[in-house]
Design brief:
This protein is α/β, with parallel strands linked by helices. It is built from twelve helices and 14 strands. Keywords: Signal, Transport.
Length: about 325
């Protein structure tokens, strides 16, 4: 970091972990409500891929996946909530960009979902491409990468549009369903969730096939605390590594008892002590999988075949299956 450059929200080394242990909870910023990623159920429990990451972090650090304080954040408040120290980690469908990574005092720990910006419209004959939306009224959420991507794409293709921008996702959705705008643009995953869970007549709508941007999403922490950054990073990788090794919440106890495979033994806490390098105990990765599951289990129940959304794994498949999910070796 250049001399004299002060970035907002920079933490002091080791302070976040100390604070988490003193509080007895991981304070995690999540979406105000998006099925598949972070949403409260009827009994008040948070579910979703991002919520699962928060629980995995709590399981690793505090021994209990339920020791999480979930803080709903909007697109406008999520960054400042992390910068100010209101939350310990941000796990909220947040795109990892150069500007956010270098100028806001944040550090992304990895990618838990590969997304892209798409468009959902009411079905009509012949409408099959974004390039046919010249002159359309398009709803977007403010405070996201969506607005800039939209402007750049339409300008590059000599297309005109009218943006209708709202601070709250619920207002954007209402404007779209009430006909105030003809198109809703956002992350492809968000539109798939919208179509599957929030539209009264989902068959009347379609998501156009093009993606106009790449949107790597993942958790972020404040820059300046290497210890907390490493714990947050390896918590995400542990969920992926478990799936790579074939370790799940259902078989982890049997695999721990067997102890035949050195990589598995190391992962479940029956081999080399890998926790000491993070200031954690020997079974931190065991608890993540036992209490939360591996990455594939989390994806399937929240977004995949076991969910209402039923998204295909796509890029989120393991690298061994043609996807992009890969963990550095845990050794």
């Amino acid at each position: 970091m250049a001399a004299g450059l002060a970035l907002p929200g920079v933490a002091h080394a080791g302070k976040v972990l100390d604070g988490v242990k003193q509080k007895g909870v991981v304070t995690c910023g999540v979406h105000t409500g998006r099925a598949g990623f972070a949403l409260t159920s009827a009994d008040g429990k948070w579910t979703g891929l991002d919520a699962d990451y928060c629980r995995a972090l709590a399981a690793a650090v505090l021994g209990d996946a339920e020791k999480v304080k979930f803080v709903p954040t909007s697109a406008q408040t999520r960054i400042t909530a992390l910068q100010s120290g209101e939350i310990d980690v941000l796990s909220r469908n947040t795109t990892w960009t150069y500007t956010r990574d270098t100028s806001l005092g944040l550090a992304w720990v990895g990618i838990n979902f590969y997304d892209g910006q798409a468009f959902i419209v009411k079905k009509r004959p012949g409408l099959k491409s974004v390039k046919q939306l010249n002159g359309a009224t398009i709803c977007v959420d403010s405070g996201t990468t969506t607005e800039k991507n939209l402007a750049e794409y339409f300008r590059a293709h000599n297309l005109k549009y009218k943006a209708v921008v709202f601070d709250q996702h619920e207002a954007t959705l209402h404007a779209f369903t009430s006909g105030r705008c003809q198109v809703f643009s956002g992350d492809s995953s968000a539109l798939a969730v919208l179509k599957a869970t929030q539209l009264k007549n989902p068959d009347d709508y379609e998501i156009l096939p093009e993606l106009i941007s790449k949107e790597p999403l993942g958790p972020a922490v404040r820059r300046g605390d290497d210890e907390w950054f490493a714990i947050a990073r390896w918590t995400l990788y542990a969920m992926v590594e478990a799936e790579e090794l074939g370790i799940s919440s259902k078989n982890i106890d049997k695999l721990k008892a067997d102890g035949d495979n050195p990589a598995i033994a190391r992962f479940v806490g029956a081999g080399d002590d890998m926790g000491k390098f993070l200031g954690l105990d020997k079974e931190w990765t065991y608890r993540i999988v036992k209490q939360v599951g591996n990455y594939g289990e989390s994806f399937d129940r929240n977004l995949g075949a076991q969910s209402l959304v039923k998204l295909p794994r796509g890029y989120m498949k393991l690298w061994t299956d043609g996807g992009l999910m890969m963990s550095p070796p845990l050794r």
